[in-house]
Every structure is written in C-alpha cells, then in structure tokens.
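B., you asked whether I could sanity-check this one before it goes into the benchmark set. Here's the sequence:
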Amino acid sequence: MKNHTLEYSHFPAIYYKLCQLTSNWGISLPLTQIQIYVVNDNARNMSSALTGKPVEHLSCAAHSLQLAVSDAVTEVGLDSLLKKCRSIVGHYKHSTKSRERLQSLQKKTEFTRAFSNSDGGHTVE
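And here's what the prediction gave me:
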C-alpha cells in the first residue's frame, strides 16, 4: 500500500496527478482492471475531481470523526470547560505542594477508591 499527498487544487490537475502516480506503479488508471481506492480528508475538490472516474473515492473516517467532535465541542460550549479542566490539571501537575494537598484530601475522603487504577481511572500523581 502506498500513501501520497496531492498538492493540487484544480479538478483536472488532481486526476492527472493521480494518473501519473498510478502510472509510476505500472497501472494505467483509465484502463486498469484493478480497483483503485482514494482516501482523502473529505475536501470537495477531491470529491469533484474523482466523480465519474474509475476509482473508488472514500472519505477518511478518522478525519470525519475529528471534524464532528471538534464541531460538537465548539457548538455545545465544551471548549471553555475543557480549557478550565486543562488549567486545573496543569496546576496540580506543576505544583508539588498543591498535588500533595490534593492527594492527602483524596485519602481522607477515600476518593481514590472510586477512581482506582483497577477500574481504569487515575488519581492525580
């Protein structure tokens, strides 16, 4: 399996470059009996360039998922909550005194039992 990044934005140039790449591998794209799959980041220019061509166009599932999660985080307002959480974690991660105080409080309240490593949780260390 080969991975190549195309740096072209115009539809004919994209398909032409794809033909060049497959030709380098000894595959004549318009005439081949081999199924060719092209995976991309869901950009419209790639979809348009490959419509009606003898290739199977697939959208990258990981990229689609990342876009959906990013949109959801922004729309719901989780981005500000995540920023605050990162700030709190960063504080305890960089301050030995605060971390020791938190661990002491966790032991007193048995908070660590609810989030022990046996169930996949973590305490602040």
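One thing to flag: The radius of gyration is 25 Å. Otherwise nothing jumped out at me.
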